[in-house]
């Protein structure tokens, strides 16, 4: 009986030690700090390959959504965010990856799948306009604290050198526009 207890105890100890080593190895390269750059409307966020700025945003007309039961009733509010992008690199840039952006209003956020891009391929020096169409819940979305957030995938593509340099220092980079 004592031998069995000793073997089980040793197995548990080995599993715990291996788990600790694995968790430490996984988390070793995870950023521990944040470097969030915040911009205002009409200010320009410069990355290695592109410049991004918010031209304007507008609120649409609120409408009622009926999901079919009393707990699925919402007042939706469409929000349009117009973003200007300029290619500052010497190469052609495909800006379609900028579709992955979010709109935050307090703790409530909205992803968009509806982005109109005037031109997906930008030659050096060219500009394009992107219209992001969001639909938010009017009751929970805080309009007075709206933030437009550029996704991590976009930062990796268009600001790769800075993103990787900061990431290797343990810093997670982000770009946010206050509206």
CATH secondary-structure class? Mainly Beta
Overall domain count: 1
Strand content: over 45%
- List low-confidence stretches: none
CA-CA gap between termini: 69 Å
Q: Any guess at the CATH architecture?
A: Sandwich
CATH fold descriptor: Immunoglobulin-like
Structural class: alpha+beta
Q: Count the helices. How many?
A: 3
Percent helix, as a range, is 10-25%
Order of helices and strands: HEEEEEEEEEEEEHHE
Quick check: average pLDDT? 85
Shape category: flat
Please state the CA-atom Rg, rounded to the nearest Å: 23 Å
Number of strands: 13
Described by strand count, sense and barrel closure, the largest sheet is:
6 strands, antiparallel
Characteristic terms for this protein:
179 residues; alpha+beta; Immunoglobulin-like; six-stranded antiparallel sheet; five-stranded mixed sheet; 3 helices; flat
Task: Provide an overview of this structure.
This protein is an alpha+beta fold. It has a single domain (32-178), classed as Immunoglobulin-like, CATH 2.60.40. It is 23% helix and 45% strand. It is built from three helices and 13 strands, in the order H-E-E-E-E-E-E-E-E-E-E-E-E-H-H-E. It has helices at residues 2-27, 152-158, 160-168; strands at residues 33-40, 44-46, 50-59, 63-66, 73-87, 93-94, 101-105, 108-111, 114-117, 121-122, 127-137, 146-150, 171-178. The strands form three sheets. Strands 2, 3, 4, 5, 9 and 11 form a six-stranded antiparallel beta sheet that branches. Strands 1-13-12-7-8 form a five-stranded mixed beta sheet. A hairpin with a 6-residue loop joins strand 4 and strand 5. Helix 2 crosses helix 3 (160-168). It is flat, with a radius of gyration of 23 Å. The termini are far apart. The model has no long low-confidence stretch (mean pLDDT 85).
């Amino acid at each position: 009986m004592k031998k069995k207890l000793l073997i089980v105890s040793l197995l548990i100890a080995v599993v715990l030690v291996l788990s600790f080593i694995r968790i430490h190895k996984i988390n070793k390269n995870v950023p521990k700090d944040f470097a969030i750059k915040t911009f205002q409307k009409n200010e320009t966020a410069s990355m290695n390959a592109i410049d991004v700025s918010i031209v304007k945003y507008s609120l649409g007309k609120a409408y009622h959504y009926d999901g079919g039961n009393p707990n699925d009733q919402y007042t939706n509010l469409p929000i349009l965010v117009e973003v200007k992008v300029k290619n500052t690199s010497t190469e052609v840039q495909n800006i379609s990856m900028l579709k992955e952006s979010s709109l935050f209003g307090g703790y409530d956020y909205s992803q968009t799948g509806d982005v109109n891009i005037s031109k997906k391929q930008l030659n050096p020096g060219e500009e394009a306009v992107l219209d992001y169409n969001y639909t938010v819940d009017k009751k929970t979305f805080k309009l007075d604290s709206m933030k437009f957030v550029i996704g991590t995938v976009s930062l990796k593509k268009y600001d790769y050198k800075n993103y990787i340099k900061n990431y290797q220092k343990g810093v997670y980079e982000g770009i946010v526009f206050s509206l």
